[in-house]
Amino acid sequence: MRRNTRVRYSLRELDDEVGVYLQERAKAKGIEVNRLVNDMLKRDIDLIEAVK
After folding, report:
1. H/E stretch holding 13
2. CA–CA distance, 51 with 37 (Å, rounded to integer)
3. Residue 15, Cα to own-chain centre: how many angstroms?
4. Would you say 23 and 12 are in contact if contact means Cβ atoms under 8 Å apart?
5. Is-above-0.85 flag for pTM?
C-alpha cells in the first residue's frame, strides 16, 4: 500500500469488545478514537520495523 493511500474503517467492522475498549480508552484520554487507533498502530509499526 502506498503511504498516501487513505484507508477508512468503521468501529462497526471491529469485534464489539474491541470497539468498546477503544472507545473507553479514547474517552479516558480525552481524544478521538481515530487518533487513539492511529497512535497504537504507529507504535506497532515502529516495533515491527525495529525487529526487521
Report:
1. none
2. 22
3. 14
4. no
5. no
